[in-house]
Amino acid sequence: MKKNLFLLYALLQSILSYSQTDSAPVITANGNQAFCIGKAINVVEDFTITDSDDVGIAFFFIQISSGYQNGFDFLDLGSHPTIAQNWNSNEGKLTLSSKVTGSEMLFADLIEAVKQVVFTTTANTIPEEKIFSLTVDDKNYLKETDHFYEFIPAQGITWKDAKIEAKKNFITEGKVTWQL
After folding, report:
1. What distance in Å separates the CA atoms of residue 33 and residue 43, rounded to the nearest whole number?
2. Cβ–Cβ < 8 Å for 112, 77
3. The pLDDT of residue 99
């Protein structure tokens, strides 16, 4: 019995140690190009992602976080040998993932793919500057507040209770899990 408890304790310690030492990916991106209506343009001019203790990631998100015109604006990866794409027109967000179910995208492949993503629009006018957010999490970035937001469904919850829950889950260490 003591042996089993020790193994469980050792397993819990290794899980806790791993979760506390896992480094977050570091993303750098450059791009501030002039855009001509009717032409496709790459979202970034340069992009890197590194992580001291990982070689890949399951999902990556590119969102038109400011100036998005639903029904007119699009992000597209085109064809890539190892990375799949999913465009969400309601959020103006492109999700990148591995074409092999259950596996991660290698950072080298992701870097290549992000550099290939293009923005196009069928709109005749562009009323404001387009801002793109590149994230490793499925939160939505709003430039106006400089915060990330996440929709968490909870049927029957009141606005007051939702606000209380959001405040409980607010993180101030450079990340916001969700905020109302």
Report:
1. 9
2. no
3. 95
pTM recorded for the entire structure: 0.69
Long-range contacts of 90-93 (CB under 8 A, 24+ apart): 91/63, 91/140, 92/63, 92/64, 92/65, 92/68, 93/61, 93/62, 93/63, 93/64, 93/140
The b-or-e profile of 73-82 (16+ CB within 10 A means b, else e) is bbbebeebee
**CB of 134 closer than 8 Å to CB of 61:** yes
CB under 8 Å to 127, separation ≥6 — which residues? 67, 69
Q: Which residues contact 7 (CB under 8 A, 6 or more apart)?
A: none
Mean pLDDT computed over 133-144: 68
Alpha-carbon distances, residue 153 vs 67, 137, 150, 165 (angstroms): 26, 17, 10, 12
Of 55-64, 79-88, 100-109, 145-154, which range is least confident? 145-154
For 142-178, what is each residue's pLDDT tens digit?
Answer: 556 666 666 666 778 787 777 777 666 654 433 333 3
Residues 33, 131: Cα–Cα separation, whole Å: 11
Q: Cite the beta strand spans of 90-130 per DSSP E.
A: 93-98, 105-106, 118-121
